[in-house]
Amino acid sequence: MTQPAEKVYYRFVVLFFNCLLTFGSYFCFDIPSVLQEQFQGNLTCPNATVINGTVDCVEGLGMSPQQYNLLYAIYAWTNAVVVILAGFLIDKLGNRFGVFLFSFLCVLGSSLFALGSHFKGTPYLLPLMLTGRLLFGSGNGSLTIVQNRITAFWFKGKELALAFGLTLAFSRLGSVLNFFLTERFEVRYGMQWTLWGGALLCVLGFVSAIVVSVLDKVGMKQLGLDGAIQEESRKVRVQDVKLLSLRYWLLVLTIMFFYNGIFPFIADASKFIQDKYSDYSQKEAAYVAGAVYDSSLVLSACVGILIDYVGLRGVFAVACAVFTLPVFGLLAFTFVPPLVSTIWLGVTYSFAAASMWPSIPLVVPQATLGTAMGLATSIQMVGIGVSNLVVGQILGTTSSESKIPLWRWQRMMIFMLANTFGCIITSVLLNIVDHKQGGTLNKTTKRSGQMQSDSEREPLIRREEEEPRENRDGAVRSINS
Question: Compositional bias (Polar residues) at which positions (predicted)?
Answer without folding.
Answer: 441-453
